[in-house]
Amino acid sequence: MAGSSLWVVGLASLLALPGIFVSVSVQASPGDADPHYITCVGECQNTGIIGSNIINRCQSRENGSTSAGSSWYTQEALRMQWKQLNCMTDCRYYCIMRREEERRLGGLSPVQYHGKWPFKRVSVFQEPLSAALSALNLLMHLTGWLSFFLLVKYRLPLRPQTKRTYYEYAGLWHIYAILPMNAWIWSSVFHTRDIDLTEKLDYSSAVAVLGYSLILTLLRIFNVKEGAARVMFAAPILAFVTTHILYLNFYELDYGWNMKVCAAMGMVQIVALATWAGVTRNPSRFRLWVVVFGGALAMLLEVFDFSPYKGYADAHSLWHASTVPLTYLWWSFIKDDAEFCTSTLTLVKKAR
Ligand SMILES: [Zn+2]
């Protein structure tokens, strides 16, 4: 058993390690440094015309800036800012599509623009596949949590005096369920419309999920049931995660640093779960192994990035696809754990 758990830890660390060294450069990309692209965007923003497309948002730019004396928060100023933002986004999109078509005809491979691959839009969706898969992940968490809720509330025996569940982690899992659901909502919004606000909400929500699930994983693995001990475990991680979210939102959205923080939290969790899966008597430990290895393998999709196939399916969207079955398995593991802990406690009671 010890040998196999060591092997598990070794492989999980190996799979998770590249995540630590990956850094995402978002500011400058080869595509947006191209003079043809820069000229195209400039002309489009001035005239509102690009090829056969007419962008109304750019044509009615009025004087191009908010009227003198009006504050940035007045309704008219906000409307103008929103219009200019949409004009810029549309111009960039059409210029990217034009440049990519020229590159394709010239036998060149796709390049990134402003830190992102060129994606084909569908209706209002900038990255339709990632947005749809984020919604599917949300649905998987919702159904997973609902079936967990029904299990602990109605199907498993309750304590005779208090009528509360025997499973001591039920409350923590209920709170946990809110965080990934929130994160997948913002992920769908971000992949639909990429602006500063949606990006920060997506990143912050994802960090919150990683931080809370790390706390919960450690509490479960070390069987921490007493309130004060739980606070001792949670407090340093909670303080770190809160500071990190504040840093990203109000100081600097540093992609490279954020990636390191997320990879480190993910790796600690994967190594902890893999070790536990190797030593626990929990009957559904095999499910846990699949989640751990599946999760580590899925992380590779974030490391080995590639351009979107047919303009839709890139590595990031495949990563969102991979988390769909993993989420199903994760919630079935949580349900099995609730059943296992309940049966252990009720058997101990009967034996007395
Ligand atoms: Zn995403």
From TrEMBL:
The chain crosses the membrane at residues 131-154, 166-186, 206-224, 231-251, 257-279, 286-304. It is found in: Endomembrane system; Golgi apparatus membrane. It is a multi-pass membrane protein. Keywords: Golgi apparatus, GPI-anchor biosynthesis, Membrane, Signal, Transmembrane, Transmembrane helix. Belongs to the PGAP3 family. PANTHER family: PER1-RELATED, POST-GPI ATTACHMENT TO PROTEINS FACTOR 3. This is Post-GPI attachment to proteins factor 3.
